[in-house]
């Protein structure tokens, strides 16, 4: 075989390699695709952290954190009456072994209460080695997925070492990686062959046009033979009988089985925070300056706590805007998508106990654009939502307020 040198092919190849090399390391996989008002005003994640980001196959890792369910839940998003916390992974690289909500074992979906705070923990086990981008996320029934903060996990080791055995209620130890595999393959093939055979039985004969002509000629009696009718009757009776018989065989063989659960777990939100009512924050208005990529939030802070508080952070859609003035006190967020020093106040003096102050917060950062949060002003629901973190450094306390306000865009 003669190999021809094709310059255009080489050029194409170079271009390809170049595009791979120059691709930015940040990867998007849909977390920014959801409308900003859903990302900002449904599940508000905070304090999310991983026990480790480097581990081996078979080793356990846990992700824990909290989330607030926004009071100002968007009107167009169905209420979180059935919600499931899951982990987004590129394929079966981890297995989930345990999951908790507010310290309680959590198997099914749960109904979340707007205004409530919850604490979660998910335990996972490494299955396939590699470097993966992983998020905890919520599946909200009829609304879709709301992503939590993402991290990179490095799983080392040998995939052959992976063990996933468990003990059944009868005391039998089974390997979950292969248990029932042959059985599953057999039944898929069995029904597949039966269905394909039934189709072929009809398809092998002349099809639409010729049958239509016969119908037109009044020969419909000849379209279906006595043999066709016999086979149809055999299938009609045989399939249900087979299903019922095999079901009886299975039930007999595994008498102690727990059915797949389809109910809802009932887990109430954490008791109202001790700080509730001690520092009240009310958002008055919000203005977004498109050219400056700056959100101006006017909030009224009513400090009824015992100590002076300072605004340290505004967090929305897993973006943490930190008050640069407070960076020294070490309120750094967890390993989240973005964190920065984009927050500044018109008055940085601590808000004294008993003081009621209207504060203008400027959150100026390219993240509004890069995280596609500025799409808010083009939405039919232009309301911003997020968590405002206030700190009492003397008492070592943190107060969290979920705020929301309608956003007025400014174009100059
Ligand atoms: Cu991600």
From TrEMBL:
The chain crosses the membrane at residues 185-203, 230-249. One of its GO terms (molecular function) is monooxygenase activity. Residues 1-28 form the signal peptide. Keywords: Membrane, Monooxygenase, Oxidoreductase, Signal, Transmembrane, Transmembrane helix. NCBIfam families: AmoB_BACT, CH4_NH3mon_ox_B. This is Methane monooxygenase/ammonia monooxygenase subunit B. It comes from Methylomonas subterranea.
């Amino acid at each position: 075989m003669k190999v021809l040198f094709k310059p255009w092919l080489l050029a194409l190849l170079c271009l390809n390699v170049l595009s791979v090399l120059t691709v930015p390391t940040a990867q998007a996989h849909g977390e920014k695709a959801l409308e900003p008002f859903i990302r900002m005003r449904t599940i508000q994640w905070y304090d999310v952290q991983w026990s480790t980001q480097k581990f081996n196959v078979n080793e356990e890792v846990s992700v824990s954190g909290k989330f607030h369910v926004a009071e100002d839940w968007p009107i167009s998003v169905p209420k979180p009456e059935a919600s499931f916390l899951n982990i987004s992974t590129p394929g079966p690289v981890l297995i989930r072994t345990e999951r908790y909500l507010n310290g309680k074992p959590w198997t099914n979906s749960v109904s979340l209460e707007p205004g409530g705070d919850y604490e979660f923990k998910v335990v996972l086990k490494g299955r396939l080695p590699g470097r993966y981008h992983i998020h905890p996320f919520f599946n909200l029934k009829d609304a879709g997925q709301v992503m939590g903060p993402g991290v990179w996990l490095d799983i080392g080791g040998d995939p052959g070492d992976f063990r996933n055995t468990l003990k059944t209620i009868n005391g039998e130890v089974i390997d979950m990686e292969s248990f029932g595999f042959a059985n599953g393959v057999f039944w898929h093939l069995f029904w597949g062959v039966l269905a394909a055979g039934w189709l072929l039985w009809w398809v092998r004969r002349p099809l639409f046009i010729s049958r239509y002509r016969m119908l037109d000629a009044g020969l419909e009696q000849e379209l279906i033979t006595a043999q066709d009718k016999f086979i149809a009757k055999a299938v009609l009776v045989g399939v249900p009988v087979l299903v019922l018989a095999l079901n009886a065989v299975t039930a007999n063989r595994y008498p102690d089985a727990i059915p797949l659960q389809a109910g809802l777990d009932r887990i109430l939100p954490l008791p109202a925070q001790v700080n509730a009512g001690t520092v009240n924050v009310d958002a008055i208005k919000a203005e977004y300056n498109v050219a400056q990529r700056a959100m101006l939030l006017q909030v009224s802070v009513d400090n009824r706590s015992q100590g002076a508080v300072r605004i340290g952070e505004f967090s929305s859609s897993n973006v943490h805007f930190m008050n640069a003035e407070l960076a020294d006190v070490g309120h750094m967020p967890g390993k989240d998508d973005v964190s920065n020093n984009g927050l500044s106040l018109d008055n940085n003096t601590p808000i004294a106990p008993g003081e009621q102050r209207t504060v203008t917060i400027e959150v100026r950062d390219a993240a509004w654009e890069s995280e596609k949060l500025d799409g808010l002003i083009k939405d039919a629901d232009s309301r911003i939502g997020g968590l405002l973190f206030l700190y009492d450094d003397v008492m070592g306390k943190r107060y969290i307020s979920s705020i929301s306000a309608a956003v007025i865009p400014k174009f100059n």
